[in-house]
Design a protein that fits this description.
single chain; mainly beta; Thiol Ester Dehydrase, Chain A; four-stranded antiparallel beta sheet
Amino acid sequence: SNWTAAWHLMQKTKAATPPCTVTASYSIKLLRPTPTSGKVELVSRVVDSSDDKATIKAELIAGGKTCALCEGVFVAVTPGHPAYHRW
């Protein structure tokens, strides 16, 4: 989900690389157990954005069924921010 936000912000600003981002908020709603065998798919999309912030919604799908939903807000940070490239 963070990668969706970072990729979106990179494309929006026409940057050569994704920005360093931090998580402002993140929530997950678990709907059913996720099987440990078989294909698992994560579908993520940007639902709102500004110059340095993107809100995403994502869905975890296994066996054709939605197992979890999530929403997150990710903010691009620049050098000097305490979390800039910390991990």
